[in-house]
Amino acid sequence: MPLFSLPDLIKSSGGLPNGVTRPTWVVLDVTGAYPERQPSTPLQALLNRTDTLEALEARIEKLRGADWLHGVLVRISEFTAAPATAHAIRNLLAYLNEKKRVVAFVPQLTMTSMIAASGAREIAAPESADVMLGGFAVEPTFLGEFLKKRGIEFENLRIREYKAALTRFSQEHMDDANREQLQAYLDGLEGAWVQDMAQARGVEASVAAGWLSGTITSAQGALDAGLITRVAYEDELVGPATQPMMAIVDWLVPSKPSNPKAGRVAVVPVIGTIVTGKSRTNPLPLPLLGGPQAGSDTVVAALKRAVDDKATKAIVLYVNSGGGSALASDLMWREVQRSSKPVVVVMGEYAASGGYYVATHAKHIVASPYTLTGSIGVVTGKPVLTEFNRRHGLNPERVGRSSALLYSASRKYTDEERNHVERGIEEVYDRFTSRVAEGRKLTQERVNELGRGRIWSGADALERGLVDELGDLRLGLQRARELAGLPHDAPTWNVTPKNRGPLPEFVQEAAQAATVQVWPFGRERVLTWLDQDLKVR
Questions:
Q1: Residues 344, 363 contacting (CB under 8 angstroms)
Q2: What is the pLDDT of residues 307-336, one digit of tens each?
Q3: pLDDT of amino acid 516
Q4: What is the DSSP string of 119-178?
Q5: How far apart, in whole angstroms, are the C-alpha atoms of residue 154 and residue 165?
Q6: Contact 381, 156 (CB under 8 A)
Q7: Could you tell me if 379 and 399 are in contact, meaning their C-beta atoms sit under 8 angstroms apart?
Q8: Mean pLDDT throughout 244-268?
Q9: DSSP 412
Q10: Taking 50 as the threshold, does the pLDDT of residue 502 lie above it?
Q11: What pLDDT does residue 509 have?
Q12: CA–CA gap between residue 64 and residue 528 (Å, rounded)
């Protein structure tokens, strides 16, 4: 049978050879970062052009049900998703594998692309594939010396030794406790990667661990080592009865729940830095400031709407956040704790500090083995501009109570002020550990051992009782259905708060997006926050 390239297929009339009425193979592209859900706010949804795991799962569900389809070629190219997201895609491809022959085409053999591809039965790469299998690492930049040279110091009060948020602003180098926890987290990620690869390729874990030794430099080397199953170009993998996904939409039958009247599961997102007020997105790519922000008002309103909705029988709280405001975290936690309907928390790339706080009283917690969680600790701080002001002729003058200017950047804390601030964050830490102890049924002493600001991988968190199960959003939705007594295919819906006011919501959101704040946490200075300048590579 002659083979054709994908462009030839698209150009041809109908794209199918004579006598063939439907394609036997489909090409499915997996490209980009893959956020978990479609943005819940109108403005973000309008501007969103990236594919989501939610959309990918819907496509895969339809492909599974296409009786006329033999196989799927999954092109994993320019893949920028985090390891936890890659693992969720791995599970989706394995799910598709149950019904169809799945071949992954991977032109860039990276740590994360191989996690995703390992869900396929077969993995092919071109002879010229880029091979970057160097393990996982992080490289945070410490700004302490840089800031001091410019007359800026940073006061950083934290609980306890592992709480590394803000240290890149206050220190010149990484401290030993932070290095220890980061290395342990990365070891956990590599352990999960080895287990995934070993299971997928049917080899011992020791063999898969050897693939990280740096000896694989080419596609042929990956084939010889057993990491992939074929060296081939894309045109060698598709035939005349192959069509791209976009060309077969009309042939796919939408899947319908078996009993939609039985009830549904609500999905509430907590994505980005946790702040008080409404959820918003700051477009500036700045430390502390940029990216999505999960507002307590928005999340609480969404949870209340889900509880009030008669058709909703269970709630999944999807958390991809390194925390933020201690107050906002507690307000979200309260709504989870008092929910009359079962709440399942699903953790994404991050569910740390305040992102873990909100999860403590869920009925069930699901984490990816690649999730960064824990960081049970508290931090506060402020920049000190005394020397900066002196150099530039700036002279702040105080009038009134000094305590009202506690967080002023004009000078350091006095001993009395520092004791006051430390007492406050100790109280928040005690509250945090009490929440964890009660929700996870652990002693407070044990929680303090696991806490002190230390981060854990999802797999390590499972061993220590901080989460209940390893998996992804699909598994979390299934656990929610089970807790509510719903059928396995009960529908889901993404919850948003009710209309906020007389202006269209997208107008309000545009106004919020245009507002730039210097400090993203409002008036609050006590944080349950993990500095997310930890992009795993």
A1: yes
A2: 999 999 999 999 999 999 999 999 999 999
A3: 46
A4: TSSEEEE-TT-EEE-------PPP-HHHHHHTT-EEEEEEESTT--TTHHHH-SS--HHH
A5: 12
A6: yes
A7: no
A8: 80
A9: P
A10: no
A11: 47
A12: 43
What's the average model confidence in pLDDT over 396-419?
95
Neighbours of 110 (CB within 10 A): 20
* Angstrom distance (rounded) from CA 260 to CA 486: 10
Question: What residue type is assigned to position 272 of the chain?
Answer: G
Contacts 24+ apart (CB under 8 A), 409-415: 409/382, 409/383, 409/384, 409/385, 410/385, 410/386, 411/384, 411/386, 412/153, 412/155, 412/384, 412/386, 413/155
289: confidence class by pLDDT, cuts 50, 70, 90: low
Token readout for 468 is 């209940």
Pairing of strands 372-374, 343-352: parallel
Instruction: Render pLDDT for 342-394 as a digit per residue (tens, 0 to 9).
Output: 999 999 999 999 999 999 999 999 999 999 999 999 999 999 999 999 999 99
Number of residues assigned to the chain: 537
Q: What tokens appear for 467 in the block?
A: 């989460």
**How many of the other CB atoms lie within 10 Å of CB of 49?**
6
| Interstrand relation of 101-105 and 71-79 (parallel, antiparallel or unpaired) | parallel
Q: Do the Cβ atoms of 379 and 166 come closer than 8 Å? A: yes
Asked whether the bond before 160 is cis by omega within 30 degrees of 0, the reply is: yes
Closest to 217 in 3D by CA, of 280, 279, 129: 129
User: What are the tokens at 507?
Assistant: 């107008």
Neighbours of 220 (CB within 10 A): 14
